[in-house]
Design brief:
Elements: H1 14-17, H2 21-24, H3 46-54, E1 61-67, E2 69-70, E3 82-83, H4 90-108, E4 114-121, H5 129-142, E5 145-155, H6 162-170, E6 175-181, H7 185-190, H8 197-209, E7 214-221, H9 228-241, E8 245-250, H10 272-288, E9 292-294, E10 298-300, H11 305-312, E11 316-318, E12 321-323, E13 329-333, E14 338-341, E15 344-348, H12 352-360, E16 366-371, H13 374-389, E17 391-392, H14 394-401, H15 405-408, H16 412-421, E18 425-428, E19 431-434, H17 436-440, H18 442-446
Helix pairs in contact: 4-5, 4-12, 5-6, 9-10
């Protein structure tokens, strides 16, 4: 049984990890894709994406809709968003979204049955009740939903009303993800996101009353002024509310992307060791409360669909994090949205105005992308297996690709020997499994299989720290 499938997780002691922190604390990808986005280029453009869409005909689809708008700026956030209190911009955005959905559906052709719909942002509940209903109609008209489709949306409890949740429930949404981050008033003030617990409790209660089968919380560790003690208080309140899933993300300090993060004093940010201490403590508390730990940073109650997907081997990692749908094509709609097809990636222009301009001109708004080579496909499979099942299986690899793993990655044992020596991997013949310590250093372990990594120029950083 792999680490990702196991019902328990042995939490390492911080003292035993101290010697490893200097060695494995370095910039590295989160592996929501392989190759990672910095590798992609503009040579993969609109025509390439259109051809790739044609190859997706009659395959099950996962649909992602990006709503980039927020009323105010959270200073920790590195997402693609537009701060605007003028809600009149939402209507024209949905006009363009409808045109894009129609154009992509035409390029795919055939049956386009949507088995998973996710809406993110920004703040999707920036949209009014009629606008949310229109967004749902746009998606369903061009990508008809499967009767058992998972339909989820990210929401900000500070701006979400019961009426908005109600219209989403009427259109088949069954999972809602609440941005919580941290309950400490001091931390909330530092990140410009003051959100009393009562707001989170209200939205959680209303979502359950309206029939959402899964309520999820997003938390972040490593924020300014966070300590193990302050985060323990956050965990007390979260555990009392009993969300079905918890995503416990590591704060990414990426000031070259999010300039507002430069306002954080370095002394106010926890060190790598303190971050790891917070995560270990959170893992212990959540485990005691009955949650199972998956992959990098996800927790779920045993009866949740994420737990079932981990047990059946259907857990998958993509730009939405860990999901329950394996072997489906992901279609992204909206500014900056990313599509992940079986053999390629495509990303739309990030700026709303550029995206809208190309859509209104009758084009696809592809900014960049990547066609996966045979080597890419095989390494992607290996990294996915490691991130989701916690193992490197030579037999499974050979079954999938008809070649021995040693033919793809010569001297594998030699490459992995330092990870085994440091206790991150346990070797069993030609196979390897992540240890509890390796689960905490999963990103550096996955980097072993990345053929595109190179030392970044100091003036051009690309990735957040792995710890």
């Amino acid at each position: 049984m792999t680490q990702a499938q196991s019902d328990s997780f042995e939490i390492p002691d911080l003292e035993s990890l101290r010697r490893l922190i200097p060695k494995y604390e370095r910039p590295g990808p989160r592996y929501t894709s392989y190759p990672t986005a910095p590798v992609w280029n503009e040579e993969f453009g609109e025509d390439s994406f259109r051809e790739a869409l044609g190859r997706a005909q009659n395959r099950p689809l996962s649909l992602y809709i990006h709503i980039p708008f927020c009323e105010r700026l959270c200073s920790f956030c590195a997402c693609n968003r537009e701060i605007n209190r003028d809600h009149s911009i939402a209507g024209p955005y949905l006009d363009a979204l409808e045109l894009e959905a129609e154009r992509i559906a035409e390029a795919i052709g055939g049956e386009r049955r949507c088995i998973q719909l996710a809406v993110g942002g920004g703040t999707p509940t920036y949209l009014s009740v009629p606008e949310l209903a229109r967004m749902c109609r746009i998606a369903d008209a061009h990508f008809p939903p499967h009767p058992d489709a998972e339909r989820s949306i990210e929401i900000d409890p500070r701006v979400t009303t019961r009426e908005q949740l109600s219209v989403l429930a009427e259109h088949g949404f069954n999972r809602v993800s609440l941005g919580v981050q941290d309950m400490s008033p001091k931390v909330q003030r530092a990140i410009n996101r003051v959100q009393p617990a009562e707001q989170t409790e209200r939205v959680t209660r209303e979502a359950r009353e309206l029939g959402f089968r899964s309520v999820n919380f997003d938390l972040i560790y490593g924020l300014p002024f966070q300590t193990r003690e302050s985060f323990d208080d956050t965990l007390n309140q979260v555990i009392d509310m009993r969300p079905d899933r918890i995503a416990l993300y590591s704060y990414a300090h990426v000031t070259w992307i999010s300039k507002q993060q430069r306002g954080f004093e370095k002394k106010d940010l926890p060190s790598a060791e303190r971050k790891l201490e917070i995560f270990l403590h959170a893992n212990k508390r959540l485990s005691q409360a009955g949650y199972l730990f998956f992959g990098l940073d996800h927790f779920a109650l045993p009866e949740d669909e994420l737990s079932l997907a981990a047990r059946t081997g259907d857990l998958r990692r993509n730009f939405m994090g860990y999901t329950t749908k394996a072997s489906v094509d992901l279609i992204g709609l909206g500014a900056s949205a990313i599509s992940e097809l079986r053999d390629s990636y495509a990303q739309s222009f990030r700026r709303r105005t550029e995206w809208e301009e190309r859509i209104r001109a009758g084009r696809l708004a592809t900014m960049r992308g990547w066609s996966l080579s045979e080597d890419d496909l095989r390494r992607k499979w290996l990294i996915q297996r490691l991130m989701c099942q916690g193992e490197i299986s030579t037999a499974a690899y050979e079954d999938a690709f008809g070649e021995p793993l040693s033919a793809r990655i010569p001297s594998l044992a030699e490459k992995l020997a330092p990870l085994v020596e440091d206790g991150l991997l346990a070797a069993s013949g030609e196979d390897y499994e992540l240890t509890p310590t390796g689960r905490l250093f999963l990103r550096p372990v996955a980097m072993t299989f990345d053929a595109y990594l190179s030392e970044p120029e100091p003036s051009r950083p690309m990735f957040s720290s792995t710890l």
